[in-house]
Structure formats: structure tokens, C-alpha cells
Specification:
binds D-mannonic acid, alpha/beta, 3-stranded mixed β-sheet
Length: about 500
């Protein structure tokens, strides 16, 4: 419950706002004086948006843009939030009337906002009917999605629908009782009245994320209902989007910090960085919130923004994660302050990754990189390397491999990126830090790749076996000279860990 230290339930105050003036004075006494609170009548909020994937990222990103839209008077855009798997977040939110706080923090600077735009928090496995009903309602005009890369049942290297995915297999036999993201979406869309315009926007870190979702959803629908597949392809808009904000998972300390600022306990509190960016392809089927008035950029082509962000931010993040895990560095800011990993990451970004990016028109990519490095150094965020290291078999094909493939095709070596790749393989194979501590790897696709690495009798064979693992690396073979360089890096890692890998140019 979002309850103050004296037992006042703030939701009651926010649900029954006296008048705007009185509300701010009431909340100022009740929620920490610095916090911004919803100054609109939440009872009047319609639910024009359904969001799938109710994690911290959505609540700190799209929900905050929408909160500001609603705060400026357009009450159509309340959000029905849906968790497709985990029951804890919807339970926590439902218990505090879907109110939660977002604290933006850099160094000593902080700003806290209570977000009121969530109308409901549902758990699809146990509340499937209300979820499907919400998707099927004419008044739902926009569906946004953050279910992480693995939530789309996609084969990461081919980009095709993975028909062996357990949830998809289930849904194809019981399409009216779906479990997967695609199954839930397809069934919700099937229930919509004809002619009710819908826009479905993927907000996950994938290249051409909207186009990809459209292809996967149509592939899925074709397996069960050809007319639904046609409807998906012709009637629904799938704009591409690029989202950016660093939002670490909550910790006991971050919850405590938020509680101090609010003067309230908020079990769903988020502490994240102040920076936020949202670039949206302006391709909607029907009405949408005026997100451009609250900081989003609506544009005709999102692809250059996506490539820049995926390669420079996420690409560097993954390198920080694996190098950091191997070196026993818990957070991104620890890694940036480390005398071995910090310089490696800076060079990786400024030399290797930057050279593969064609920035969007008018963008100064060097300035973008400098900002990124400053964001990574933010000491106020406990952004754990272990969190970013998750699901590497989904992330690496998006963040590193396109840049590597393009460079290899042009005959260019990327010595730092190639080292990062070797460090990831070593991390998967060993499951131990350089100091010998066990590492926890959370990546359903990793076991098969790790097995190949462990079975190989030599680093040369290990590199070849890994690069031939098509679900991650694709079907096209890599040049032998590249495989030989990866093998050399693996040898160094086996001999002396990251220190040995980075000691040689
Ligand atoms: C991170 C991203 O966990 C990860 O893989 O790289 O979540 C990253 O923090 C966001 O994309 C930043 O916008």
C-alpha cells in the first residue's frame, strides 16, 4: 500500500480530489513536498490504452509520457496494464490503487512524481477474460508492449516465428485461451468490432520492432485463422519506435530512498535516471495521445534512431554486463569506474561501435556518446550488470552481430567488439567470474550454446562451434580469420581472464 508513516492512505486523497488547489496542499502535506502528484480526477480517466508487460520500464517510460498528456487535460488515455507472467507487479499495484512513484535521480539531484494514469493492473494467466475484453473494446485505440526480446516467440537470428516455442505451441492448439504475447494479442484483435481502428506499438529493444511484430503476429494468426491474419495485415498499424531510459530493477535501497522522498511507503516505487527519449514512427490507425507535446518525437523514419541506440547504448551495455560479471563488478557505474573495464567500454563505444552507426539527420553522434558515458557513470543508480547480462542469446544478435557482420563484409576488424563477443562466450562457458565465483546466468537460450563451447576440445574448435550455432549467429558462415581471432581471445580469457584479454592490442 502507498501508505504514509502515520497510516493515511494516500489513494483515498487522490481518488477524491477536492479541488486542484486543495489537492496540491493536501498532497504536499501527505506526499513529500517535492513530489508531483496527479492533479486530475482519476475517476474521469477513460482507458484508451492497453499495455502488455507491466515491468518497471513501461511504468517509468511510456506511462510517464502518458501521465503528462492526461495531466494536460486529455483524459481519454488511461492505461490498462497487463502482466503476461509475473503476478507480483499487478498484485502490488492493485493493492495501492495502481498508484506508484517514479524518482529520477542523478548524483544528488532527484525529482519524484506520483503517476496516476494506470487504470487497472491485470495478470493475464489468472485474469485472462478482462485482458481479452480490454483488447477487444472499441475504445481501446492503442496497445503498447514491453515484454522483452524473448517475449515475441521469435527465432532471434532468422527473425521468423519460433513454432517450437512452448507458449506458441500451446496457443496454436487453444487459441481462445492464449498464454503468449502473440496469442493474447491475436485473440484480443479477433474480438474487436470491425472498423474499430487499432495501433499496436512494440516498445522493446529490437530493430524494426513494429515491422517485426506485425510479421510475427500475422505468421502466428495464419496458423489458425487466415481471415484474422489478413485483418492484422490490412487494418492494424504497427509503428516502429525507439525507447530509451535506464530503469534499474528496484532494490531495498531504492525503495527506501523513494519512501524517504515521498514520506510514504510505495512497494512499486521506481528510481531511474532523469534522461528519457521516445521516437515514434508517425503511423497510427486511429486516435493517439499527443505524446509529441510531452517530449516524444514523432517522425517518418525511426530506423536510424533505433540503430544508433541499439548499437551505442545497448551494445555498450551488454559489453559492460559481461566484462563486469567476469570482473566481479556489480553495477554499471562500478564497471565504468574500474581501471580495466572503464577504458575498454569507452574505446569500444567511441572507436568500434560509433564507426558502425549512421546517425539520424542533425545528430552529433560524438555528443550522443559523451552523454551515454555520463549516463553510465551515474553513481546514484544501482543498475546491476547481472540484470543487463540476462537473455544474451536474444540481445547479442540485435546489439552486436549486425555491426560485426557489416564490418566483416567490408573487410574491417572491430578489435574491441570482437573481444566483447569472446568475453560473452567465455562467461557462458565458465559460469564463473575471473576470481572463481559462481555466476548466475538467466537466459533460456544459453544452455545449447554453452554446451557447444564446453564440448569443444580447443579454443579454435570452441570458437568455430559457437559461431556455427545458427539460432544465435545465423546460418551464414563467418570468415575463418574472424573465428581465429575469437579463438585467440578465448585462449587469453582462459589463461588470465579479462585482464589477459585486454592486455594485448
Ligand atoms: C539494457 C536496457 O537490460 C538491458 O539489456 O541494455 O534495458 C537499457 O537500460 C535500456 O534499453 C535503456 O533505454
Amino acid at each position: 500500500m502507498l501508505v504514509d508513516y502515520h497510516g493515511t492512505v494516500v489513494q483515498k486523497i487522490l481518488q477524491n480530489p477536492p479541488s486542484q488547489g486543495a489537492l496540491s496542499s493536501v498532497t504536499a502535506g501527505c506526499v513529500g513536498a517535492q513530489a508531483i502528484c496527479p492533479a486530475y480526477d482519476r475517476r474521469q480517466l477513460a482507458a484508451g490504452i492497453v499495455h502488455l508487460g507491466l515491468g518497471a520500464f513501461h511504468r517509468a517510460h511510456q506511462a510517464v509520457y502518458t501521465e503528462q498528456t492526461v495531466a494536460s487535460g486529455d483524459l481519454r488515455w488511461g492505461i490498462i496494464g497487463v502482466s503476461l507472467r509475473d503476478a507480483r507487479v499487478p498484485q502490488t499495484l492493485a493493492a495501492q490503487d495502481c498508484l506508484y512513484s517514479v524518482t529520477e535521480r542523478h548524483g544528488d539531484q532527484a525529482r519524484t512524481r506520483v503517476v496516476g494514469v494506470l487504470r487497472a493492473a491485470l495478470h493475464a494467466p489468472t485474469q485472462l477474460e478482462p485482458v481479452l475484453a480490454a483488447l477487444g473494446r472499441r475504445s481501446t485505440a492503442v496497445v503498447t508492449i514491453t515484454v522483452t526480446e524473448k517475449g515475441y516467440s521469435q527465432n532471434p537470428s532468422s527473425g521468423e516465428l519460433d513454432l517450437n516455442d512452448a507458449a506458441v505451441r500451446h496457443d496454436l492448439t487453444q487459441p481462445r485461451m492464449p498464454r503468449s504475447t502473440l496469442g493474447v494479442l491475436a485473440e484480443g484483435i479477433r474480438r474487436r468490432p470491425s472498423g474499430a481502428p487499432l495501433t499496436v506499438m512494440c516498445c522493446d529493444n529490437m530493430a524494426a520492432n513494429g515491422d517485426t511484430l506485425r510479421t510475427l503476429l500475422a505468421q502466428y494468426a495464419r496458423e489458425t485463422d487466415a481471415s484474422l491474419a489478413r485483418r492484422i495485415e490490412s487494418d492494424i498499424a504497427f509503428p516502429n519506435s525507439m525507447v530509451d531510459r535506464i530503469v534499474p530493477a528496484a532494490t531495498a535501497e531504492s525503495l527506501e530512498y523513494a519512501a524517504e522522498r515521498l514520506g510514504l511507503r510505495d512497494a512499486a516505487a521506481i528510481v531511474c535516471e532523469p534522461f528519457t527519449q521516445w521516437v515514434i514512427e508517425d503511423r497510427f490507425a486511429g486516435p493517439r495521445p499527443a505524446w509529441e507535446d510531452t517530449g516524444a518525437l514523432l517522425t517518418g523514419d525511426v530506423r536510424p534512431y533505433q540503430a544508433m541506440k541499439l548499437r551505442l547504448l545497448n551494445g555498450a551495455h551488454s559489453a559492460i554486463a559481461y566484462a563486469g560479471q567476469l570482473c566481479g563488478l556489480e553495477s554499471v557505474s562500478d564497471a565504468m569506474a574500474d581501471s580495466l573495464v572503464g577504458p575498454f567500454v569507452r574505446r569500444l563505444m567511441l572507436e568500434d561501435l560509433c564507426a558502425t552507426v549512421a546517425p539520424p539527420p542533425g545528430y552529433d553522434v560524438q555528443a550522443y556518446c559523451r552523454d551515454l558515458l555520463r549516463r553510465f557513470e551515474n553513481p546514484a543508480l544501482a543498475h546491476r550488470t547481472q540484470q543487463i547480462a540476462m537473455d544474451g542469446t536474444q540481445k547479442v544478435p540485435v546489439r552486436w552481430l549486425p555491426a560485426l557482420r557489416e564490418s566483416l563484409a567490408a573487410g574491417i576488424e572491430r578489435p574491441l567488439l570482437e573481444r566483447a563477443l569472446a568475453a560473452w562466450l567465455h562467461y557462458l562457458e565458465r559460469e564463473r567470474s575471473d576470481a572463481g565465483n559462481a555466476l548466475h546466468i538467466s537466459d533460456p537460450g544459453a544452455a545449447a550454446l554453452a554446451e557447444r563451447l564446453r564440448q569443444a576440445p580447443s579454443p579454435q574448435r570452441a570458437a568455430a562451434a559457437a559461431l556455427a550455432h545458427a539460432p544465435v549467429f545465423g546460418a551464414e558462415p563467418y570468415p575463418p580469420a574472424f573465428a581465429a581471432r575469437i579463438a585467440r581471445h578465448l585462449t587469453r580469457l582462459r589463461e588470465g581472464g579479462m585482464a589477459a584479454l585486454l592486455a594485448h592490442d
